[in-house]
Amino acid sequence: MMDRSRRNRVLGKTGLLLLAFLLCLLGSGLQPSLAAEKAITLKAVSAFPQNNRMNDGLWIFQKKVKEKSKGGLEIAWGGGPEAIPTFQLVEAIRNGVVDLAWTAHTFNVSQLPVVEGAKLSKLTPWDERKKGIHDFYQNAYQKKLNAYYLGRGTPGLTYNLYTTVPVKSIGDFKGMTIRVTPAYKAFVEALGAAPVTTDPGEVFGALQRKMVQGYGWPSLGISDFGWDEVTKFVIEPAFYQVDVMTLVHIQAWNKLPKEMQEALNSSIQEMELEASEHFAKLISQDREKIKKKGVQEVRLSGQEAERYLQTAYEASWREVLKKDQSSGAQLRDLLSQ
């Protein structure tokens, strides 16, 4: 039998050889098998603050990607507007500064004018895929912004106008001053109202001091800013769809194994279905909440409602066609099928 001292010397040499082997592996850039199996990570930057409801679809998507890829692909939060300002995110995705942008078509209009028409869709995301509209956006984003278009983030989430004065007909908007964003500025002008632009943080004071008599906003969330305390009416019908969507930089996309690309595509489609139900439920709950705070629902009926919606869509299509006649007409035809 080997004596104890000789055995210790052999074991000691074996340990040193093993240690040297591991150091060589690390020094050469190779990783032990556990490290080699580390998940691929895509850093996502959002146009919205982390706790904003516009990110609800992102959290659903993030969970589904991890599940479908069996942990092989992860979407990591890379920050909101504090990381990259909202309107600069389009440049960041075009230049490959971020892997994934959770943004909105509206924020990309400076680079791709035709997508101003995206909010005018009355279709579900799955119908858009069937009718070739998803492919239209895919081609446009890859060609102009070096980005792969995955899909929509807020399906079914609409806009409303909210006022401090009663509205019984379209004519009642004439002469009002209404706070707007670019998404519905043309509509407000077509109603005969005067549009003004302010930061969301200034809206409460503007309403309280009667500097404005109304504003547009998605069909939920006014209580997040306390606006329900100074709002008297919410006008129905709702119009447009909030056009949150997501893009992956084309190089980041092309580097992914095919099964990971499939995981992203299938996850976004499942998320769109869930998000559609999610936002429908939130809108209903939010409406009941603001009604309890004293906000009255005004429903334009019959011909007035038809004229209201016709004004909303025609005014915005004019803007789209003014900016890109050819592509705008193509998108309008696709959305009208």
Considering the chains and any ligands shown, give keywords for the structure.
337 residues; alpha/beta; D-Maltodextrin-Binding Protein, domain 2; 2 domains; 5-stranded mixed sheet; 46% helix; 17% strand
Helix and strand topology:
Blueprint: H1 4-27, H2 33-36, E1 40-46, H3 56-68, E2 73-77, H4 89-94, E3 100-104, H5 125-130, H6 133-145, E4 147-152, E5 159-163, E6 177-179, H7 185-190, E7 194-196, H8 200-208, E8 214-218, E9 233-239, E10 244-249, H9 250-255, H10 258-292, E11 296-299, H11 302-323, H12 325-336
Parallel strand pairs: 1-2, 1-3, 6-7, 6-8, 9-11
Antiparallel strand pairs: 3-10, 4-10, 5-8, 5-9
**CATH architectural designation of the largest domain:** 3-Layer(aba) Sandwich
Structural class designation: alpha/beta
Enumerate how many helices there are, as a single number: 12
Instruction: For the record, give the distance between the C-alpha atoms at the N and C termini, rounded to a whole number.
Output: 88 Å
Rounded Rg: 26 Å
Order of helices and strands: HHEHEHEHHEEEHEHEEEHHEHH
CATH class of the largest domain: Alpha Beta
Number of DSSP E strands: 11
- Averaged pLDDT: 91
What is the beta-strand fraction? Answer: 15-25%
The low-confidence parts are 14-36
Task: Give an overview in words.
There is one protein chain. With 337 residues, the protein is an alpha/beta fold. The chain folds into two domains: 36-156 and 243-281, D-Maltodextrin-Binding Protein, domain 2; 159-241 and 294-328, 3-Layer(aba) Sandwich (D-Maltodextrin-Binding Protein, domain 2). Helix content is 46%, strand content 17%. The protein contains twelve helices and eleven strands. Strands 7-6-8-5-9-11 form a six-stranded mixed sheet. The chain has a five-stranded mixed sheet with strand order 2-1-3-10-4. Strand 1 (40-46), helix 3 and strand 2 form a beta-alpha-beta unit. Helix 3 (56-68) packs antiparallel against helix 10 (258-292) and helix 11 packs antiparallel against helix 12. It is globular. The chain starts with a helix and ends with a helix. Mean pLDDT is 91; it is low at 14-36.
